[in-house]
């Protein structure tokens, strides 16, 4: 019998684990919450910390609730359903501040109120694995702490029209050539939903059958459905007819952004709109200003900046995304104010930065790796070329903390920051930070 220990949980970290101190050593216990007393057993012992799992909850915390999802115990799709929704947000903010303090050695002067977002049915982009097991198709997320696939018939974080489509899609794929389907993706836009099948083979019979499936899904949901085939790195539209394109809107700025399944978009359109609104409130673009939008993608921030009459240079590492962003600018009547340029931002230096010319303000929305090279290049340019305000959108508190520390060393003032809950029922944290000269 494995040895059992008792601990009081005093904190919660960015991975969604409760934190305790046992004999001066940090212990991270999966699914434990601050204020709880738990009986636990170790699963991994390191020199500086121990990881554990709960054997029994001796005193539950007030934030603990019964997870509503039937698959929650096994599914790795989300890990925080056992926490009351508003407490999830509070714990994320607490973990975010801890990262700022301990990793970046900096804190914002003003803590923004959190953007809560939706608790359920918010995830409008999802990827599911497909595995054939003894002739039966399993379609779902990877299991927790395992490479197995948890077979699901519904998902509470998906919009209902997408969740209800899982059964007919799975039934259809069951009759596909065994082991040739690797997974699917679903994207919900304003008027259309795209089903992308990741498969090695497609014949004419299957193509005709796909049209029948799409008609069934359209009658069931009221949305126009389209189907794409992803083979290797190539994604191709295979629906026989498409009457509506994938697109999402930023209503406050009267902007529509068409996209394709392989394009990066936020999984949560409603909270994305709130995020853009908050970024614009702090960036305060106006006529006569020149603003650089780093990691601009399809123009999620560039186009609202241009709508507010500032001149925008959007910079993105992928040339195809720059081309689509330019088309989106034209689609929204903003081509006069915005242009897009491909560049390797992770290889940025002072010389390349200087060649772009002066910008009054910057907006950054980097991937998880952050923007270290770009920020360090600020040390190589003259004071007069430094932007007077930087608004930084982050999907990783650790890299934001690092980059915030670098900006403060360069002479920037950490004006404000806070979290945005784009991924409810998970420990994932999006955030925004504002830096002034």
Q: Helix/strand/pairing class, anyone?
A: alpha/beta
Provide a count of the helices. Answer: 10
Main beta-sheet strand count, sense and barrel state = 8 strands, mixed
Low-confidence stretches: none
CATH class of the largest domain: Alpha Beta
DSSP strand content: 25-35%
CATH superfamily of the largest domain: Vaccinia Virus protein VP39
**Subunit arrangement of the protein:** single chain
**CATH architecture of the largest domain, please?**
3-Layer(aba) Sandwich
Q: Tell the overall outline.
A: flat
The CA-CA distance between the termini, in Å, is: 60 Å
Helix percentage range: 10-25%
Provide the residue-averaged pLDDT. Answer: 94
Total strands: 23
User: What is the fold-level CATH name, i.e. the topology of the largest domain?
Assistant: Rossmann fold
What is the total number of structural domains?
3
Instruction: Enumerate the strands of the largest sheet in spatial order, edge to edge or round the barrel.
Output: 7-22-23-21-20-17-18-19
Task: Determine Rg (CA atoms, Å).
Answer: 24 Å
What this model shows, in words?
It is a single chain. With 437 residues, the protein is α/β, with parallel strands linked by helices. The chain has 3 domains: 5-64, Nucleic acid-binding proteins (OB fold (Dihydrolipoamide Acetyltransferase, E2P), Beta Barrel); 99-118 and 268-436, Rossmann fold (3-Layer(aba) Sandwich), CATH 3.40.50.150; 125-237, OB fold (Dihydrolipoamide Acetyltransferase, E2P), CATH 2.40.50.1070. Helix content is 25%, strand content 31%. It is built from 10 helices and 23 strands. It has helices spanning 85-104, 160-163, 166-174, 204-221, 269-283, 302-307, 319-331, 350-355, 372-376, 397-409, and strands spanning 5-8, 11-12, 17-22, 25-30, 37-45, 49-59, 110-111, 125-133, 136-142, 149-151, 181-188, 192-199, 224-231, 234-237, 247-250, 255-258, 290-294, 311-316, 338-342, 361-364, 389-394, 413-420, 430-436. The strands form 4 sheets. The protein has an 8-stranded mixed β-sheet, with helices on both faces. The longest helix has 20 residues, at 85-104. The radius of gyration is 24 Å and the shape is flat. The mean pLDDT is 94.
